[in-house]
Design goal:
The complex is a heterodimer of chains A (about 110) and B (about 400).
Chain A (H helix, E strand, L loop, with lengths): L1 H21 L3 E4 L2 E4 L14 H8 L6 H4 L6 H13 L7 H15 L4
Antiparallel strand pairs in A: 1-2
Helix pairs in contact in A: 4-5
Chain B lengths: L7 H16 L14 E3 L5 E7 L2 E4 L17 E2 L8 E3 L5 E5 L5 E3 L1 H5 L3 E9 L22 E10 H8 L7 E6 L12 E5 H4 L5 E6 L13 E3 L12 E7 L6 H4 L3 E3 L15 E3 L6 E6 L5 E3 L4 E8 L5 E7 L7 E2 L1 E2 L9 E7 L5 E11 L23 E7 L5
Parallel strand pairs in B: 6-14, 18-25
Antiparallel strand pairs in B: 1-2, 2-3, 3-4, 6-7, 8-9, 9-12, 10-11, 10-14, 12-13, 15-16, 17-19, 19-23, 20-21, 20-24, 22-23, 24-25
Classes of the chains: A mainly alpha (about 110), B mainly beta (about 400).
């Protein structure tokens, strides 16, 4: 009995280890398969407008969608924010849109 | 350009992405386009992180030394943030409905009862290489890793559609997946194919990549495969097929993924297109894979340049190589031919006698004469990139590095 329990513990340990070594983000149970995604990248540079930008832009996408763009001028970022509102229905007021455009242009754009 | 202002493009061009990564040391929390880091997502190997949600991951070039791209290495690109992370095959069904005689709801086992077909085909994001456009273009700043060459296995779309019975008056077929928008106001992702295209021999619903199940991030349990056409049509986690009478007006067909309506698909750099059409077939490309851009090699030593070439479904007839910045061109030897949708590997023996910087270029031509322009063509969305790539290899004196 003891040996059997020990074997079970060992077997489950081996299984756990194998699962971890194989792919910790992937699981299977019967006919079901699932994955666990890593946390999205949500870091922005400190500065006025950071929180507003993070909250609204982060509704639909991680913030690396902003930080990986080339350094575009203000007009280009204004057009991008307008597209988010018009095409995708982002609930961003005019005031907040300006805060977001200011922030992105300053920290991730071509300034000015 | 002022001497002190070295742009990220020049930086990547000058030292290569790997060196650029190494030079930055510990990466800051905020990542710029030139500072890609390697990440490991579920069921995937180490890929370059472009964005984390919706995930966009690209394949490091070293994986393309293999003729067929491993499942773990294939790039990942989703449009909407609610992507499928769990699928239960007991309840999963593929719906076929719309202007059909008999709507179907197929389990994966039902699907597998149809004839199995397969082939190797290049899958490439429409925006692959967008980061190399000048002037720069808004959107995913892909290097050249949003592509791969995979052996797909599945069933013909045509067989499924015929089984449902296409009724007269049908004009196109609309495809949707399990991915959902973050908000109801965001247009749900879909793509459509004209009915004629949908009925072609080689459009398949794939349930296998390289003989195995699809990784969840590449569209488990099934995805559409439209060989020769850009990956935007290869709808992942396909769950809904609708035979339609009228063309779809959805954002993803009507506004996104369109190119200038011109034979070159291009406009004057920095300008808008007067009229656009949906992007479809891939342009012809060739890339140097090994040694990578910026590599140092010793003079007098025999080496072999290796790369890949592909086109939108017409095979590759010839790849010409220049090691002197385009003055002289010689044909490369082509590797094993896996069919017109696959890429082909090319090999070029080279033994540089003198030290110096050598500009290597590769130019492919497909079986219907389509080739690559010397200078890049520009379009507002950064699609179709296929200019002749320029690589610098540094030859050092024998015995020194």
């Amino acid at each position: 009995m003891k040996a059997k329990i020990l074997l079970c513990i060992c077997a489950s340990l081996v299984c756990t280890t194998l699962a971890l070594a194989g792919d910790p983000g992937s699981a299977r149970e019967g006919s079901s398969r699932s994955i666990t995604l890593p946390a999205p990248v949500d870091d922005l540079a400190d500065g006025p407008g950071k929180d507003t930008t993070g909250i609204y832009c982060g509704i639909c996408h991680s913030l690396d969608y902003i930080t990986t763009q080339p350094k575009f001028p203000r007009a280009r970022w204004r057009a991008a924010v307008a597209k988010m509102i018009k095409t995708y229905g982002a609930p961003i007021s005019e005031t907040n849109a300006e805060i977001i455009v200011d922030y992105i242009t300053t920290y991730y754009g071509a300034g000015g | 350009m002022k001497p002190q202002e070295i742009s990220r493009r020049d930086f990547i061009k000058a030292v290569g992405i790997t060196t650029a990564l190494a030079a930055t040391g510990t990466l800051p929390p905020v990542l710029y386009a030139s500072e890609r880091r390697l990440v490991t997502y579920p069921e995937k190997g180490e890929l370059l992180l472009l964005t984390s949600s919706p995930p966009q991951l690209e394949t490091p070039l070293k994986y393309f030394r293999e003729l067929v791209t491993p499942n773990e290495a294939l790039f990942v690109r989703w449009h909407l943030s609610n992507i499928p992370t769990s699928v239960d095959l007991d309840s999963w069904r593929l719906a076929i409905h719309g202007n059909v005689g008999k709507p179907l709801s197929l389990s994966l086992d039902d699907l597998k009862k149809f004839d199995k077909v397969g082939f190797t085909a290049v899958i490439q994001c429409a925006g692959n290489g967008r980061s190399f456009f000048e002037p720069p273009i808004f959107g995913g700043q892909w290097l050249n890793g949003a592509m791969g060459n995979v052996t797909w296995g599945g069933v013909r779309l045509r067989d499924i559609l015929k089984s449902a019975g296409i009724k007269s008056g049908s004009t196109e077929v609309v495809f949707k997946g399990l991915d959902k928008p973050a908000m109801p106001t965001v247009p749900g992702f879909l793509k459509s194919l004209p009915l004629d295209k949908a009925l072609e021999d080689d459009i398949i619903i794939a349930y296998e990549m390289n003989g195995r199940e699809l990784p969840m991030l590449n569209g488990f349990p099934v995805r559409l495969v439209v060989p020769g056409w850009y990956a935007t049509y290869w709808v992942k986690s396909l769950s809904d097929i609708e035979v339609a009478v009228k063309p779809t007006e959805n954002f993803w067909m009507k506004t996104a993924y369109r190119i200038p309506d011109d034979p070159c698909g291009c406009v004057e750099p920095g300008t808008a297109a007067k009229k656009t059409i949906p992007i479809t077939r891939m342009t012809t490309r060739s890339l140097l894979i090994n040694p990578e851009d910026g590599t140092r090699i010793k003079s007098g030593q025999p080496t072999e340049l290796m790369g890949v070439a592909f086109s939108g479904g017409y095979g590759i007839r010839e790849v010409l190589i220049s090691v002197d910045g385009g003055r002289n061109w010689s044909p490369a030897r082509l590797g094993r031919d896996l069919g017109r949708y696959s890429w082909i590997q090319w090999f070029y023996p080279w033994q540089p006698a003198k030290p110096g910087s050598y500009q290597v270029m590769a130019r492919a031509t497909n079986s219907i004469g389509e080739s690559q322009p010397l200078d890049g063509l520009w379009n507002p969305s950064g699609y179709l990139l296929n200019k002749i790539e320029k690589y610098n290899l540094i030859v050092t004196q024998e015995g020194r590095s």
